[in-house]
Amino acid sequence: MSNPYIVLPVLFQLFVAVILMFAWNRKNLQKLISVVGSLIALLISLALLIKVNQEGIQTMQAGGWIAPFGITFVADTLSALLVVLTATSGLAVSVFSVGSVRNARIKFGYFPIFHLLIMGLSGAFLTGDIFNLYVWFEIIIISSFVLITIGGEKAQLEGAIKYVAMNLLASVVFLTAIAILYGLTGSLNMADLSLQVANVSNRGLVNVTAILFLVGFGIKSAVFPLYFWLPASYHTPPPAISAIFGGLLTKVGVYAMLRVFTLIFIPDDFLTTVITVMALLTILSGGFGALMQNNIRKVFSYLIICHIGFMLAGLGIYSTVAIAGAVFYLVHDIVVKTNLFLVSGVIFKFRGTYSMRLLGGFYKEQPLMSLFMAIPLFSLIGIPPLSGFWGKLLLIEGAMDQSNILMIVFILLGSFLTLFIIAKLWAEVFWKDAQELPKKKYIRYFDELKPLKKQAMLASVVFLSLISLGIGFGAEWVMQLALRIAENLMDPSPYIQAVLGS
Amino acid sequence: MKTIIFKTASVFLLPLLLLFSVFILLRGHYLPGGGFVGGLMASTAFVIHSFANGVERTKNIVKFHPGFLMPVGLALALLAGSLPLFLGETFMTGLWMDQPVPVIGSVGTALFFDTGVYLVVIGVTLTIIFTISEGL
Amino acid sequence: MEILLVIIIGLLYAAGIYMMLRRSLVKLIIGLILLGNGANLLIFLLGKIVKGEPPIIGSTEKMLGELYADPVPQALILTAIVISFGLQAFAIILIKRAYKVVKTDDLDEMNATDEDL
């Protein structure tokens, strides 16, 4: 169904960014605009999700050029759901930034760039054109480059160089893949490509293109042999920025894989084997990497990698149930990973360090806050009523259907490693006796902040924890949504029909 | 490069190139040209001026921080792109005036979008060049 | 023409990857620029090179009659060039800043991100 308003989530973020740029030097006004703007953006995206849920797939042809000639925007349930989650994380991080981001960073345009990043993410989820997806990816990476370097500390710049180099390489690989795909089919519209690629006689070249896409998206979503940039960079910027990176940037790569490998390239046995092996090794290397770390933000960085493996495993199993599991896990992971980095930011504000060895006694000092921090940590492990459990359940069910014992073993191993890591982290950071830490001059500790800033930081953690709880307890609803999304992904004919007409 | 010939020429080249960049911007709809090329040309004018007279002089000519052109251009482009949305058309649909305007020709939202691009390109390029040339 | 382009693209990719594998940051950027140019030429090549007319329908005709050049690859290349222009400018400023702060352009000596804190 044609609907010109589905680009509103994207346009509104651009609008907020432009307004923020006009208010360049007025820091408090910027904070207000950013929070209010994020709230309105959340409402707009919720409206879009409700609309899609009621009336089916919505499309928009930019400039009125009919598909497959123009650029198409498509909002199916997966896209709309991810746009809502982007807006949710965006709101939480925007509120957190009010409390935590230093004025020096705001002066260099932190808030406008942040909203441009959210715009890029929403655009990437909504577009139905492969080259347009590339453009949104570039918008995402260039805003993330600015965010990761803003402030210019030594570790930040070094992390940024690694991040920039790998992401630029990923873009080139992605662009190369698009070039070959265009040469093969003469089309860029994803729905049209779905029909065209099936007719290409040169299957070898199609497989090579698929592998190129896998490598390009693999670098962006940090899967096994391509993840080394992530733990080298995600712990360097301020926590608010890490949160939006950890929550959303890798997930956009996973979304692109889910989309491309269900719509354009239907994986054959070779491709599913490659994806499966990558997924298993990602789980393993992320889990063991996290075990070795002492910096809590690095632990979370490796856990991102470990849990990307779960989503990829869903794609590797390639059945409706398993993909539903991957989608459920994606939903859960966006909220939880954003929250974890915010939690690390709050802990840092209290103690002035990220080192697990030096931290301790947080539970005794802040029992209520610790309870809210426990929710994302335990969701991550997948303790039953919490949100991580249901995604894993679906994944294991999917693997069981294909009697894929190896996959089940690795998923359980990954969960067990996560349990071990979180238990260690909980014991070290929350239960261990507190030690006297020397006060550092350049850090503004939590007690020295204004009440509004304190409340902003804590409120965003509580907000995301409650959403995590909501996903866990409202699992039936989310699961039905995930199953419907998976059905639509496995059988893309309604998508193609909505874009191209009958 | 601060020779007297280059210095003298740069003073005359600046307005000429700026005028030419506007010409390139306006002819862009049907002929080669447009906002991006025009914007690059306009920033080249400032670059030539800064080569001849030093960056500080050029900064004095521009008066305001070139970064300010970015939100202005973005706002213009956003407005031109989303104007059709208010009339029930899809985003980026070209709306055209019925009567052509003398000298310029027919005017539509595409022109305003291009002007937005033109301003953003000048803003971005000058910001980049002023930043790179800092402390060289 | 096609054979020539294929050779150039291959050389650009090979040189780009070779440069990226060096430890110097400046060479890293050069490598990325070469790779980007290689990708752009690849789009140009795969968009099928024909000696055709520009794809503009005259005011008296209803559809394209002559052999025409595909405008899409050119639009893609233009977009990709604009994007890589921005990214490369950013990367150059980044390595300049990093050089000032870290005082080296050797990637092997950038170990602050591996420190244990």
TrEMBL record, chain C:
Chain segments annotated as transmembrane: 6-21, 28-46, 75-95
Subcellular localization(s) per the UniProt record: Cell membrane
Chief localisation class: membrane
Membrane is among the record's keywords: yes
Entry's Gene Ontology cellular component terms: plasma membrane
Tagged with keyword Glycosyltransferase: no
Membrane topology note: Multi-pass membrane protein
InterPro entries: CPA3_antiporter_subunitC (IPR050601), NUOK/Mnh_C1-like (IPR039428)
Sorted UniProt keywords: Cell membrane, Membrane, Transmembrane, Transmembrane helix
Record-stated family: Belongs to the CPA3 antiporters (TC 2.A.63) subunit C family.
Protein name stated in the entry: Multisubunit sodium/proton antiporter, MrpC subunit
